[in-house]
Amino acid sequence: MRTAIGLLSALAVSTSFVAAAQAASPQRQLELRAAPSKRQSDQQPFTRPEDMLRWINGYRTQPDPDKVPELVRAASAMGVFRDMETAGVYVGFMAGVIEANPKKAEALIARMFPMPPEDQVAIVRAIAHSGHPHWKELLAKFSERMPARSVLIDRFITGKLPTLKTMPLDVGAAPIDMLWGQYFATGSYEPVVRMVSILEWSKDTNNLDRLTVGNMAKLTLATNASRDPVLLDMLKTSLRYETKETKAVLTEVIDAAETFEFGKVRRDAVASIEQLKTKGPAWARNTVWWGQAGQTALALGCIVAGALGHAEVGIPCIVGGAASSAALKYAVPGQ
User: Fold this and answer.
1) Which residue pairs from 160-165 have beta carbons closer than 8 angstroms and sit at least 24 positions apart in sequence?
2) Structure confidence by residue, pLDDT tens digits, 108-139
3) Which pLDDT score is estimated for 43?
4) Backbone angles phi, psi at 317, to 5 degrees
């Protein structure tokens, strides 16, 4: 079987990723923020997923909520919402915009329509995950425009489905993607704190899900902080409050962000998954676990390589506009 290391050796060096990182250095970001520029609404319309992601990444420095419905409709037209498992960054961003604009949230949501029934799931989830003080009322109000989504709406309203604030983070990559979307929309500390809180999982020797998600949080925090001085300051502030174990990993993240050396982060992630593949978890060395190991290793290989991703948002495994959890959709490499 080709190993995750083999996958990385073929994919890890991405010239476009390096070029984008260099072009978006912290110094360059400061220059861009200081220089006069056109509002994002004056730019060209969204024609590619890359355009949307780049706009999302810059949104928190120049918020333009009135442009968001256009982005949502464009995402729908491009098929971004056809798989909710891979649309987390978009849903999280929509939720963050609703959260940050409570008084005009209803008007913004109304302008996201018309929306095909299959894509309305994104609107439902964005409202539910927004943290808007009246999100349940908003869902109920828009339920008439989304009759096909009545079951999903009811499950959120009755508490049968968790919101982003209560959702466990070890259920896959989607929650991490949504937290990044929330950060891009608001620039707030809350989603950053939640990702920092699970950095310890990158050292987990028993749980494959936590190992994968922890390393995903580690790499994406380092990647985004390398070109976002505000985020980097947030991470440094977090050092004062974290446990000894989390602080050790967070120090690695900060060092990688400041030096633009993500190789060690990738190598550590690969080494940890290879060790689990070789020895198995301490609690369960059985055939069921080994059947899952190959898929998890491939997902982590994609996550740490960053070769398939868009540097616009620092989420490495975005494929065709989908979020990093798309890696989980691919088959294990051939024997």
Assistant:
1) 161/128, 163/128, 163/129, 163/131, 163/135, 164/92, 164/95, 164/129, 164/131, 165/129, 165/131
2) 999 999 999 999 999 999 999 999 999 999 99
3) 56
4) -95, 35
